[in-house]
Prior knowledge:
By secondary structure, this protein is an alpha+beta fold. The protein contains five helices and four strands.
Amino acid sequence: MEMVTRMVADRPVVIFSRSTCCMSHTIKTLISGFGANPTVYELDEIQNGQQVEMELQKMGCKPSVPVVFIGQQLIGGPNQVMTLQVRNQLAPLLIRAGAIWI
């Protein structure tokens, strides 16, 4: 978990993704649509991607992508993100993390 913790430190929004995953694309598009500029790690394109994916799984992330952190807090995968969106709770989280301004 140390590697993931370092990767999300000091970043308002981090998305762990795979370049070929349609759900990853959907979540990136949703969050970017608010005006946020998330840090995106494509696990199939970075050198230590398999290690990061194993750490995410140990943190309880299943499936391992996409995984979203907002304000260094683990939000979860697409189901959790979409639930926040439907409940109108995603934008306030992004605002509190400093990812977007109104």
